[in-house]
């Protein structure tokens, strides 16, 4: 059976997750409060909807609890990211990955039950540093 994903927030981060999952043949619902961003993804994702992820009734009506994995890719609006994650948790979503903007944000997201918290710039910086080191070792 195909796994179903929902991506909330279609900026560079959420947008690339949405694109890649779709390219890999997954069912993806793309959600953003910005209509223009949603329109961009209407031909990429299985479904694309304009919705405010801080509105519990809206998330309920989208049947969000039936998705296998929901990615909260809202960054700048930390309050919205926390509230959306909290609602998803309350609704019983199986797996939540959330993007953190800073260490405090990450701490709160973990505390309220996000299963996986990513901090793209920091994580990528670390990965590149490891890459550089292992490359230098190989160069010897
Ligand atoms: P990125 O760093 O990934 O490029 P960004 O800088 O474009 O992201 P962010 O503030 O991280 O912007 O927001 C990502 C997306 O989340 C935006 O497209 C924004 O419209 C959307 N978004 C913000 N708040 C909500 C909300 N309450 N419900 C749904 N989508 C939201």
TrEMBL record:
<feature type="domain" description="RCK N-terminal">
    <location>
        <begin position="2"/>
        <end position="118"/>
    </location>
</feature>
<dbReference type="GO" id="GO:0008324">
    <property type="term" value="F:monoatomic cation transmembrane transporter activity"/>
</dbReference>
<dbReference type="GO" id="GO:0006813">
    <property type="term" value="P:potassium ion transport"/>
</dbReference>
<protein>
    <submittedName>
        <fullName>TrkA family potassium uptake protein</fullName>
    </submittedName>
</protein>
